[in-house]
Amino acid sequence: MSGGWERLRGSRSRTTHDSSFHTPAPSRTVTLGRVQPQAPGHRTIYCNDREANLPVRFKGNSISTTKYNFLTFLPKGLFEQFRRVANCYFLLISILSMTPISPVNPVTNVVPLSLVLLVSLIKEAFEDWVSVIHGCIGLQALPFDSSFAIKRFQNDMVINNTLIDVLQNEKWVALPWKKLQVGDIIRVKQDAFFPADLLFLASTNADGVCYIETANLDGETNLKIRKALERTWDYLTPDKATEFKGEIQCEQPNNSLYTFTGNLIFQKQTLPLSPNQILLRGCSLRNTEYIVGAVIFTGHETKVMMNSMNVPSKRSTLERKLDKLILALFATLFIMCLIGAIGSGIFINRKYYYLSLDKAVATEFNPSNRFAVAALTLFTLITLYSTIIPISLYVSIEMIKFIQSTQFINKDLHMYHAETNTPALARTSNLNEELGQVEYIFSDKTGTLTRNLMEFFKCSIGGEVYGSGVTEIELGGAQRNGIKVQEVRKSSTAIHEKGFNFDDHRLMRGAWRNEPNFDTCKDRAFVLSIFIRNYLLKTVLLVLVAGTLIIMEFFRCLAICHTVLPEGDESPEKITYQAASPDEAALVTAAKNFGFFFYRRTPTMIHVRESHVEKMGKIQDVAYEILNVLEFNSTRKRQSVVCRYPNGRLVLYCKGADTVIYERLAGGNDDLKKVTRAHLEQFGSAGLRTLCLAYRDLSPDTYESWNEKFIQAKSSLRDREKKLDEVAELVERDLILIGSTAIEDKLQEGVPACIETLFRAGIKVWVLTGDKMETAINIAYACNLINNDMKQFIISSETDAIREVENRGDQVEIARFIKEEVKKELKKCLEEAQHYLRTVSGPKLALVIDGKCLMYALDPTLRVMLLNLSLNCHSVVCCRVSPLQKAQVTSLVKKGARKITLSIGDGANDVSMIQAAHIGVGISGLEGMQAVMASDFAIAQFRFLTDLLLVHGRWSYLRICKVITYFFYKNLTFTLTQFWFTFQTGFSGQRFYDDWFQSLYNVIFTALPVIIVGLFDKDVSASLSKKYPELYKEGIRNVFFKWRVVITWAWSSVYQSLVFYHFVTTSSASGKNSSGKIFGLWDVSTMAFTCVVITVNLRLLMMCNSITRWHYISVGGSILAWFLFIFVYSVLRENVFFVIFVLMSTIYFYLSVLLVPIVALLGDFIYQGIQRCFFPYDYQIIQEIHRHEPDDNTRAGLLDVGSQLTPQEERSYAISQLPRELSKHTGFAFDSPGYESFFAAQLGVYAPQKAWDVARRASMKSKPKTPKRN
Question: Which of 597, 691, 1159, 1186 is the most exposed place for a label (fewest CB within 10 A)?
Answer without folding.
Answer: 1159
